[in-house]
Amino acid sequence: MTKRFNPPSAQRLSAVAVAAVLAALAGAASAQPAVPAPLPGYAVSSDGRVVLSGFGQCVRAGHWVPANSVDPCDRVARADVPPPAPVAAAPQLEPAPAPIAVAPPEPPRPLIQKLTLSADVLFDFGKAELKDSGKARLDQLASEIKDAQVDEIVAVGHADRIASEDYNQKLSEARAQSVKDYLADKVANANRVTAQGKGESQPVTGDDCKKLGAERGSNKKLVACLQPDRRVEIEVLGSRQVAGGAPAAGTGATTAPAGSGSSTTR
Prior knowledge:
By secondary structure, the protein is an alpha+beta fold.
């Protein structure tokens, strides 16, 4: 006998379909990552887990506000923090320059005698030719240093401020040259006598002779006041022997003739 196939009833098919859907949902739910609970603002199941939708999203509760956002349910906005700025390398300091070697100052040359002679004793006013009184004073100086080892004799002429600056410069040079020429004939080493003129650039009277009237040679009061500025300074450099053979710079103070200015030795 041939058996007949009896199709399942519609009710039975509906039950099978429902079961298959539930199984699929259960599988999808089990495949979704579990979200820890409790999380404020989200629906929680009876087992204490956050309820997920069929798309795997957390179900928000009715009182959910953006402040309840939490990963992985809702992406939490984070401020982008810029990377730290690179630290600049410390500047390389240039090495300090080597100190410039400074030559030590030359020791002062030994001074046998230094004297200042008034130009009025040596010369007539405004002239550069030696007078007899000037020659006598230079003769005395030559006699005082004849026993010394003379390295150099320096004669420096000075003038007062009467007349022009150019005139006074030339006059001081001419007077120093006259002294040099005379002494060169009196000492052993004539080529060691030098001369230079300073003009009116180095007065010694300062303000003492101001407001004395016209600045000219006929003003006798002014001429007399400026007398210390008209001078010849002489330095004798070298050494001399004293008793016992020891070298010495000089023999002490010498006396200058009246009106000849000061004379000192060292």
